[in-house]
Structure to design on (629 residues):
């Protein structure tokens, strides 16, 4: 689909132009962003500072709300943004931690996350429910009459619970379809941003086998310079050819925050013609992981740099994009000079521009840099469907081989000492190549596509059916008791299914871990007859490790009014905990980031009798701590 849904519908009506007036669809354009309806939920009337805005690029999603700073402290008063009722309370170990949802008469719901605790009347209800269900983790919905609130009523205290990297309030506004809206569009005077988006560099990417940038195939970063008028330029001569993709390292800034905030709008124009446009709108939950296609996933994972693509990536189901017939890639095969303009906007319409020119030139400079390092005779680099093979310059032939089929190919380009072959695997998939007389297996073992979505080998079976955005080229191998599933450079829609035959391992306490990083990460898995089935969410190297060590329990406070502990587990991680005093279940709150457990009473009766805390890890190693008070 080249244009967005609106255009398609429009053309449909043009083509078939129904005569009946009943078919005319009148869409009522209601502006949901009513100014003044909501009050700021934290320190209203005081200029705020955000550590996150709506649309910040986060790993696996666009940020869906505002992160409101609380001066590094917890316990700040949180007020209901408008009248309504507490419609949902959710308590999670990770995610939003302690979260509160208030539904308002206008149909919108405000969400308050990472709370330290709820205001006393709400907390009473929550604790009663936690005792009734004998659980810390909770997700309960309320009727409008249960917990009504007035605008400005104290409802909670800010904290740092769940997947929060420091004390702050996560504030979100959702519509009835559970889409999140940009809270900053509701006219909060507390938010100030007169600063235009900032750009650090533009990255140009070759996205066809014939593409070149200054004589080479690859991805090249160009730092930008800020001119006296505040706009950005690239002061370099750039020769290009083929399909070129633009990416940029850019973010918003505000005078009230040292943080990098989100962008609302990006447009790439070539000689004043729009090639690609991104306009962030409401965020849905079902496709939020598609953000990994909006950004350059590989650079996000490997360099922790979140770039914006200036072209559309196949498979992205978010509807923020408009683009040319080449999905936003710029076709530069006309031997002309092109003026490129990138326009960037934040929520408050502060605007920046980047200007540079690209010279379309088929005969680019051959004095390109050599890529082989001392001693290397050949190197292979794979990015997406493109494989780049670099070898020392020679007269020897070069063949791509797949089964009985072979094809001689010529170097794509060369300098005085090296030759480079650029192969688009989508067009020329091969299993090995012949460099002179030497047969070399391809460093890609599998082409995984919607048609061929399951990979079988003697010792493993991997089903990618539900997680593919587009065909990917992977190297998958079972080597030295490690299952090497390429590298985490390919975005996937979710968890995929792996079956791994490991008859050498006893099933007891042995589980799958993502290994090779600084710490092994527990993945889990279920054994059946020497085969372990697991569901990883990323590519990488997996191994099997045995955890026979029970968690540790360190008591901190034990008296008639408070119980608190620190709990830790070295390898597989904490799965559950349970505390009883005098045989009765006691609610313990849990902060997983520092391993803290502390008690919360249902009523004011003193703790008395035998205290038993049981903590279990993911391999069912159990630690029991007993004492009497
Ligand atoms: Zn947040």
């Amino acid at each position: 689909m080249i244009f967005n849904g609106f255009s398609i519908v429009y053309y449909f009506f043009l083509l078939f132009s129904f005569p009946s007036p009943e078919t005319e669809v009148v869409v009522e354009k209601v502006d949901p962003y009513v100014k003044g309806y909501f009050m700021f939920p934290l320190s209203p009337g005081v200029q705020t500072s955000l550590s996150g805005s709506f649309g910040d690029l986060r790993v696996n999603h666009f940020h869906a709300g505002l992160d409101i700073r609380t001066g590094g402290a917890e316990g700040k008063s949180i007020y209901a943004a408008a009248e309504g009722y507490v419609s949902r309370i959710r308590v999670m170990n990770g995610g939003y931690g302690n979260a509160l949802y208030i539904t308002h008469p206008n149909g919108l719901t405000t969400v308050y996350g990472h709370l330290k605790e709820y205001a006393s009347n709400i907390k009473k209800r929550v604790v009663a429910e936690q005792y009734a269900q004998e659980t810390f983790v909770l997700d309960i919905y309320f009727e409008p009459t249960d917990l009504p609130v007035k605008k400005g009523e104290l409802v909670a205290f800010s904290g740092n619970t769940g997947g929060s990297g420091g004390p702050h309030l996560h504030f979100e506004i959702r519509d009835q379809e559970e889409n999140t809206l940009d809270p900053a569009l509701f006219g909060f005077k507390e938010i100030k941003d007169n600063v235009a988006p900032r750009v650090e560099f533009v990255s140009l990417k070759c996205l066809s086998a014939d593409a070149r940038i200054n004589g080479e195939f690859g991805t090249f970063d160009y730092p930008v310079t800020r001119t006296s008028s505040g706009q950005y330029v690239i002061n370099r001569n750039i020769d290009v050819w083929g399909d070129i993709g633009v990416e940029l390292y850019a973010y918003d800034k505000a005078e009230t925050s040292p943080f990098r905030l989100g962008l609302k709008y990006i447009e790439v124009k070539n000689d004043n013609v729009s090639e690609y446009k991104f306009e962030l709108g409401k965020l849905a939950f079902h496709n939020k992981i598609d953000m990994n296609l909006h950004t350059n996933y590989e650079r996000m994972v490997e360099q922790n740099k979140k770039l914006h693509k200036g072209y559309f990536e196949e498979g992205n189901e978010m509807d923020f994009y408009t683009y040319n017939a080449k999905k936003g890639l710029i076709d530069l095969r006309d031997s002309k000079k092109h003026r490129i303009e990138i326009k960037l906007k934040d929520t408050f319409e502060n605007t920046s521009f980047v200007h540079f020119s690209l010279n379309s030139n088929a005969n680019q400079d051959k004095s390109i840099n050599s890529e082989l390092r001392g001693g290397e005779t050949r190197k292979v680099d794979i990015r997406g469907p493109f494989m780049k093979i670099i070898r020392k310059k020679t007269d020897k032939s070069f063949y791509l081989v797949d089964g009985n089929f072979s094809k001689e190919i010529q170097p794509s380009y060369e300098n005085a000492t090296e030759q480079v072959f650029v192969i688009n695997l989508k067009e020329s998939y091969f299993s090995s190549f012949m460099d002179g007389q030497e047969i070399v297996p391809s460093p890609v073992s599998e082409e995984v596509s919607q048609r061929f979505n399951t990979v079988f080998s003697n010792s493993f079976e991997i089903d990618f059916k539900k997680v593919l955005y587009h065909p990917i080229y992977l190297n998958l191998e079972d080597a030295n008791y490690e299952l090497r599933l390429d590298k985490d450079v390919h975005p996937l829609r979710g968890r995929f299914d792996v079956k791994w035959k490991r008859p050498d391992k006893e099933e007891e306490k042995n589980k799958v871990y993502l290994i090779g990083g600084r710490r092994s990460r527990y993945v889990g898995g279920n054994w059946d007859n020497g085969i372990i089935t697991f569901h990883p969410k990323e590519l990488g190297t997996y191994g099997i490790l045995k955890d026979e060590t029970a968690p540790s329990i360190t008591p901190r406070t034990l008296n008639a009014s408070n119980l608190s502990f620190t709990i830790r587990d070295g390898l597989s991680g904490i799965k559950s905990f349970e505390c009883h005093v005098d045989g009765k279940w006691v609610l313990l709150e849990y902060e997983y980031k520092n391993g803290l457990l502390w008690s919360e009473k249902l009523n004011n009766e003193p703790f008395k009798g035998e205290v038993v805390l049981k903590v279990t890890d993911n391999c069912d190693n159990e630690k029991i701590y007993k004492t009497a008070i």
User: Anything to note?
Assistant: The first strand starts at residue 50 and ends at 52. Helices lie at 5-16, 120-133, 291-294, 297-303. The radius of gyration is 29 Å.
